[in-house]
Amino acid sequence: MNEIFLAEAILRLLKEKRSVVVDTLEFGEVKDMEQYRELMGWLRALAFIEQELKSLLEKQEHVDD
Questions:
Q1: How many domains in the chain?
Q2: Average pLDDT, the chain
Q3: What is the DSSP string of 14-65?
Q4: How many CB atoms within 10 Å of residue 33?
Q5: What integer pLDDT is reported at residue 65 of this predicted model?
Q6: How far is CA 12 from CA 33, 34, 41, 54, 65, in A?
Q7: In the predicted structure, residue 9 carries a pLDDT above the cut 80
Q8: How far is it, in rounded angstroms, from Cα 35 to Cα 25?
Q9: How far apart are CA 38 and CA 46, in angstroms?
Q10: Can you give the pTM of this predicted structure?
Q11: How far is CA 17 from CA 35, 39, 46, 59, in A?
């Protein structure tokens, strides 16, 4: 059960970070193209990590059944 709690906490952190990045992009707070590329990289990385974590959780659910 601790693993599920940890995974859910990580997912919340990922969503919070993604929200900060999206807000920065959405409200025109990007200083230059370099920062834009960095932020887009963050979005891709966060999405990848979130998907991998969700996949691991799904696998764990099937093992627990």
A1: 1
A2: 92
A3: HHHHHHHHHHHHHTT---SHHHHHHHHHHHHHHHHHHHHHHHHHHHHHHHH-
A4: 8
A5: 67
A6: 28, 27, 19, 12, 25
A7: yes
A8: 10
A9: 12
A10: 0.83
A11: 16, 11, 8, 25
Per-residue tokens: 22? 């999206």
Are 39 and 24 within 8 A, CB to CB? yes
Range of the domain at 11: 2-64
Task: Note the pLDDT of residue 4.
Answer: 81
Spatial neighbors of 17 by CB under 8 A, at least 6 apart, are 42, 46
Is the per-residue pLDDT at 64 higher than 80? no
Tell me the per-residue pLDDT of 14-45, one tens digit each, with 9 for 90 and over.
Answer: 999 999 999 999 999 999 999 999 999 999 99
Tokens for 30, please give them.
């990007």
